[in-house]
Amino acid sequence: MSSVKEFIAQFDDHNPDWSQAPEGFPHCDLAGLSSSEVGTFLRTKTVWELSRPERPPQRSRVWQDPEGYRYLVQWSNTVLLRYLVRLETDALPKSEYRRKAQVDDAARSTVRNIEEGYKRATTREYLDFIGYSQGSLEEVRGDVRELTEDGLLASRPESSLGKIGIDLGELHRALQGSKGQHRTAEATDGAKGDYRGIEEDREGSGAQKRTGSGRTVRCFEKDFSYRPLTILYPPLTKITANDLSYEIFFELINKTDWLLRKLVASLEKKLDGEQKWYQIEQARIRDKFRKK
Predict the structure, then answer these.
(1) pLDDT in tens, 173-189
(2) Are both 115 and 208 inside the same structural domain?
(3) Hey, what's the torsion of the CAs at 17, 23, 24, 26, to 10 degrees?
(4) Residue spans with biased composition (Basic and acidic residues) (predicted)?
């Protein structure tokens, strides 16, 4: 690795060799350079900027649906885990308030990290946040084990999610279908107001009618009203803290952990493909400069 002066003196615009660039290039200390040397450095920096390939487009990060994480089984599983954890911790003695806060926070983090990671700009960041979710899930696993060791959570070897009426597939479909249900509304031509998010029914089911003030059409608009988890998936209303056990929690944690590992493998494969594309593009640009 050469100094800044040596690098710009030996630099060949037609056959750039960036392996000899000084440490920190292009963010180098220019103290001690003459005005002409600074000009040469800036020209070299321009060549460097032009020779860099564009980053590959992050197709999976340009989402059609801002809440696309709802289509992940991993997400619906962690939502259920957080709900069951709250059922259990609400039944803990008041003296266990610190443990309750810690377990609740770990369960919450498993959900939030999936959601936040989905909104990140790059696959690398998404992968990092899935890793944070895995870490929080492991924290919940340890907390469940300690709750059982301390006699605060029962162990019933024959218990399972199915025996308390929970079907993870049905839960996933229920949460996936809860995104902005459609409802009908009416709007009149020429009326003042904001009708963003309202679509005119053009398939004939919303009959049009004329009034003295204008044409009224039946429209669809998204209904984002809050719906409790117990309404979206009614079997949860019948579950109490007494129904929960070490085995039920570990069944859910193990299934979720496996699904998260599958998601990580998929994202790593995608990231590897993006990096290979980037390396090929760099080689293509280097070859283009050599031919000049």
Answers:
(1) 999 876 555 444 454 44
(2) no
(3) -40
(4) 183-199
